[in-house]
């Protein structure tokens, strides 16, 4: 029996965009199976309003739209931010961190529906195919995965649009907006179309979450963020749930043009790709978290954690959220955060976001008696001479050997 003959029902990760709208119809035609559409509400806003109607109009037998916003920020975004994970020094991993949660929820629906297969709209060139499928196999090693981009001959945007017109499927990509986007509470990303020219500046009309920095208010705004064990819990004295807190920071950062990034990144499959991102709340959150860490974390603990950040970020980018190595590293990261309790004061102005104050009433390691440049009674500056000479010993020996030679 062929693969197609064994599939009676498939659950599709469905966004209502160009690719997954076509995939829904394609699965019905090519596999002759029932298709259950699933959309995860991760903070896309009004984009989700048309999902159920559109999915059923395109042929889905059922459509799930699940509100995963709190779980997304609490169990995925916050653990990642405890590690200050940024891929290649620039990318806040907004798309990467969403995929394991979408896959987790999709697999729960597949089990509930008795589906033999799951499907996604990731291309055969991208990272998302890896992220989705590693997660699928984590939850069910025997699941059948249908990845249409690796099977069909619709290998261009023009071919997809032609297929959509043939089957009367409305598509959101037009000549006036020739790019694709992916949005959640952490960020919105843009790629494709006019962005495939790495020399061309992204058009201002593309941006959604932030104003242009030059159009931001002429007066700075100060924001105070409280942390408990490495997680943000309050903004300007108001305690908020994880999702509500990140949404508030998005609003504040967006108003001041904070969080825009334009970069060429290295995909896991080996090629470079250009992405433009807006991450206003995440940019504020990372800056504030670093501020509180600076006053509460032991130096060697911080340096050890920081030495692993690049590895941790790559695990998320490459799809290994559920891997044993990520879980082991998370345990170490979480241990380092036990003392990260306190407040950071952030200044927002014209696209910039920086810490201008930090304090901790319970875990501060800053002691003005030791750090002051004024006269003090607790530190004998003459002790530094022996410290320096001991640390210089190997350098002096090397220098003497060099003179002999």
Structure write-up:
By secondary structure, the protein is α/β, with parallel strands linked by helices. The chain folds into two domains: 3-69 and 98-175, HUPs (Rossmann fold); 182-359, Argininosuccinate synthetase, chain A, domain 2 (Alpha-Beta Complex). 42% of the residues lie in helices and 19% in strands. The chain is built from 14 helices and 14 strands. The strands form three sheets. It has a five-stranded parallel sheet, sandwiched between helices. It has a five-stranded antiparallel sheet with strand order 10-9-8-13-14. Helix 4 crosses helix 8 (242-255) and helix 5 packs across helix 6 (128-139). The mean pLDDT is 94.
Structural class: alpha/beta
DSSP summary, beta strand count: 14
Radius of gyration: 25 Å
Q: What characteristic shape results from the CA principal axes?
A: elongated
Distance between the termini: 78 Å
Counting DSSP H or I runs of 4 or more residues, the number of helices is: 14
CATH architecture of the largest domain: Alpha-Beta Complex
Mean pLDDT: 94
How many domains make up the coordinates? 2
Question: What's the structural blueprint in terms of helices and strands?
Answer:
Blueprint (H helix, E strand, L loop, with lengths): L2 H4 L2 E5 L4 H14 L2 E8 L9 H8 L3 E6 L1 H14 L11 H20 L3 E3 L8 H12 L4 E3 L10 H10 L13 E4 L4 E4 L29 E8 L2 E5 L2 E2 L2 H14 L4 E7 L5 E7 L1 H17 L2 H9 L1 H9 L6 H13 L5 E8 L2 E8 L8 H4 L11 H22 L1
Parallel strand pairs: 1-2, 1-4, 2-3, 4-5
Antiparallel strand pairs: 6-7, 7-12, 8-9, 8-13, 9-10, 11-12, 13-14
